[in-house]
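User: I'm new to structure prediction. If I give you an amino acid sequence, what do you actually give back? Let's try with this one:
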Amino acid sequence: MMTSNSPSAPTPSGPVPTHLFLRGTAQLKAGDLEAAKKSFRENEEVAGTTIQTLGLLQQADRAQAAGQLVDATGLYISVLNRNPGLVEAYLGLARITVTTGELAPAKLYATAATRLSPQVGLGWTLLGAVREAQGDRAGAVPLFAKGAMLGPDVYLCQINLGRALLALDRPKEALQPLTAATELEAESADAFGFLGQAQLQADHPLPALRALERAKDLDPTNVARWVALADALFQLREFPTAADLMDYALTPLGELPVLLEKAAAMMMSDAPRAIAYLERELAVAPDYEAGWMNLANLYLTTDNLDAAEKAAQTVLEKNPKNGEAWFFLGNLYGGTRQEDQAVDAYTQAMAASEGDYRPLVNLAMLHLASSSPQRQAEAVKLLERALSLAPQGEWRVHYNLALAYAHVGRSELALELTRGIQREADPGDPMVAEAKRLEANVLEGAK
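Assistant: Good question. You get back a string of structure tokens that encode the predicted 3D arrangement of the chain. For your 447 residues, that looks like this:
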């Protein structure tokens, strides 16, 4: 246990504590840390256990590095039972408990480390890590900064400051500590990955690409490394190169859906190539509904209407309540003048996606185009519902409802809506000009 003011000695195991150990414990509790450390050191010298304790500390460090956290914890506790003045043991325990998410003990151990040895940067960094894990990244940054200042040669101190600054959208400030991290650990893919992101956000594209490529080379089986590099190329509008990189990654990594989808997304301007990626993706992930919908939309852009219809129907075979697939089919059938099928598809879309205004609008416009007074009246009802669901600023719904009111002879309501659009919409919105024309037509018809 540790008090709020200073670390307390763990209960010693083995022989009865000597007077030096008890004196050190009392000094520790009183906050006289330098005197306590001296007493514990003298106690070990008298007992001849200094070498053994350092050996235990080295074993603990090795176990922690190997991920054997339970063994490492026991060894660190054994070290503290022998010498509660060794800051390295508190640091080790703080690192373990931060990793395992045990924030209360992590805070105690990190606090103990900063009080025993305030000049050791890693203690402040670990205290920052606790603060960040508690959800206060902004509050963690000053602690990380102090750790980085005191630990210029400590990788964890540098990378944590840089990573936190990057997460707070402060990439230019992150560059120095992240560069230092890559110099301290030249084989750290994480350090180069974060540095590449910071350089990209700081508008240093060429160094960013070099750093991200280095991260990928250091960690070639990590899909995220390839995706990050491709994203950077895409952001720099190097579209073919980005897609080629995805192609290259698919060779050693296999037909991974995440890479195939990323490649397809990057090549949306090249529909045949994007289609090829999506077809490969769906061959290995046939239940991915969004992938089928992306494929359907791409088929539509290439005028392959039969394939587009089949892709959407494949989604509905897997999930008959997929409103997006029904809406897509409604648009497809409406565009090919298959009105009955379009009406059915929009009706199904409305049932599957009750909060979506779009199928109501499109079905209403089909009804409005008919010569049937009943269907035109139904169009008005659908558009009134759509208006209650549409997001603010979606002025096309207002315009369509005004048009429907004009069709059924409710000129006053049509004028009210058209004038509202002109009054409230952004002057550059194309619906403003449409509303002016509709208003003029309604007024002309009323003469």
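You can read the tokens as a compact description of the fold. Here is one thing that stands out. The radius of gyration is 33 Å.
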